[in-house]
Specification:
156 residues, Aminopeptidase, six-stranded mixed sheet
C-alpha cells in the first residue's frame, strides 16, 4: 500500500524538471516492514483507508524526515501537515534537538512547505559529514544537488 501511495504522490513531479523521480521505484516491502516494526513509519488514515505516510531515519545524531507521501485524491486537506506536526511533537517529546531533511529547492510544494513549518536551509558550509554523505550518495544515484537542499528544524 505504501508503494502505491508513493507512486501516486510522485506523479506531481511529472510537470517539473525532476520527472526522473518517476522511475517506478518505491519503498521496498521489506524496508517498509522493518521501518514499521521500528516505529519509523507513521500512516494517516481516512475512513479506515491509509492515504498517506511518513518515514523517519537518522542522519548521524539527527532525526531525519525521509519521506512524506499522500494520495493526490486526499491532497491539500492537511494530511501531510498532520503527519509532519505529529512527527515534530513526538520528536520534541522524545528529547530530539533537531529534525533534518533534504528536498527539492525549485518545487513549489517542497522547500516552501517545509519553511512554513519552521525548517531553514542549511548552508553547505554548515553541513555535517553525514549530510555530505547523503548528498554524495544521492548524487551518485543521479539526483541533481543543484536543485536540492538540506533543511533543519531546531526542536530544543
Amino acid at each position: 500500500m505504501l508503494g502505491i501511495i508513493e507512486r501516486a504522490a510522485d506523479e506531481r513531479y511529472r510537470q517539473t524538471r525532476h520527472a526522473a523521480f518517476l522511475d517506478g521505484e518505491t519503498i521496498p516491502l521489506e524496508a517498509a516492514q522493518r521501518a514499521v516494526a521500528a516505529g519509523r513509519i507513521t500512516v494517516a488514515e481516512v475512513d479506515g483507508e491509509v492515504v498517506g505516510w511518513l518515514l523517519v531515519a537518522r542522519v548521524g545524531a539527527e532525526l531525519c524526515l525521509g519521506q512524506v507521501s499522500v494520495l493526490p485524491s486526499h491532497g491539500r486537506r492537511g494530511i501531510g501537515t498532520a503527519l509532519l506536526r505529529d512527527l515534530i511533537e513526538h520528536a520534541r517529546a522524545a528529547g530530539e534537538r533537531t529534525l533534518v531533511l533534504n528536498t527539492q529547492s525549485d518545487v513549489a510544494w517542497n522547500m516552501p512547505w517545509y519553511a512554513r513549518h519552521g525548517f531553514v536551509v542549511v548552508p553547505e558550509e554548515r553541513w555535517s559529514a553525514e549530510m555530505r554523505a547523503v548528498a554524495e550518495a544521492q548524487g551518485a544515484m543521479g539526483i541533481d544537488w543543484n536543485f536540492r537542499v538540506h533543511m533543519r528544524l531546531t526542536l530544543a
